[in-house]
Amino acid sequence: MAGLKEVRIRIASVNTTKQVTSAMKMVSAAKLRRAQGAILKLRPYANKLNELLSNLSSSADVSDDVVFFKTRKIKKTLVVVITSNRGLCGAFNSNVLKRAVTHINTNNKELYDGGQLDIITIGKKATEFFGKRKYNVIENHDSIFEHLTYEMASELAEKLMNLYATGVYDRIEIVYNQFKNAVTQILTVEQFLPIQKLVPKDAKPAGNVDYIFQPAKEEILADLVPKSLKIQIYKALLDSWASEQGARMSAMQKASDNAEELLKSLRLMYNKARQASITREIIEIVSGVNALKG
Q1: What are residue 171's phi and psi, to 5 degrees?
Q2: What domains appear along the chain, each with residue ranges and CATH number?
Q3: Is the pTM value of this prediction over 0.85?
Q4: Active-site residue (options: 14, 24, 89, 266)
Q5: Is 23 part of the annotated catalytic residue set?
Q6: pLDDT per residue as tens digits for the range 195-250
């Protein structure tokens, strides 16, 4: 059995760890409330905007006018992987990285083997992971989560749109964690460009969709399509940010619970050791008294 001093040191150490994990849990909970509020407010708007664009893409006239609707033969692909800058959030980062690697090996194997697949990382964990392996990381945006704003997301979206419009890439995909609640994140692989057509399950095959445009169709699309794509990127970033805070809060809660269980075991061990020490001292005193009497 460990000595009293050693057990006391371990108890103090675990207590310190518990205080740190509890503090980190409260900080993550506060950040989660803000992030959750932001994504829940944005999501209905982003989904409706994306649905509108998908419906518009079913119109041949619209699809021909906007380059972001046009599909091309896939010769080169860009994958955007979104993780966090820090750890201590359970399997949040490892799940995204595994999903990205699986997606590349399953759906983009030929492009990867031929050197026609590039990666943009958002978050230091993704940058470190892919930087140590044989992947062509063309750039990273690790600082974007330090102060996440729509303007920063808009700048990134414009860069991706330009890469697609100029023909550098024929498909752009995003891999990230979609926020569901504080303890659940949904791994998502989303096609950013070209814009996918919306095909409802109960829809019947139809020809062109007849829309009435006012003002001019070109003016509406010139404003609507880029805005929708920027919102889509912003939503993915907010989803990942909220998921990170939820994952970290859950991980710190589990760490605090484990620390409390360990403290109970250590206190029991300490009490047993203390009791054994007292019993031993009593026996020594009684033995000494008996020896003097003898």
Answers
A1: -155, 140
A2: 21-198+210-251 (3.40.1380.10)
A3: no
A4: 89
A5: no
A6: 876 554 444 444 455 666 677 666 777 788 889 899 999 999 999 999 999 999 99
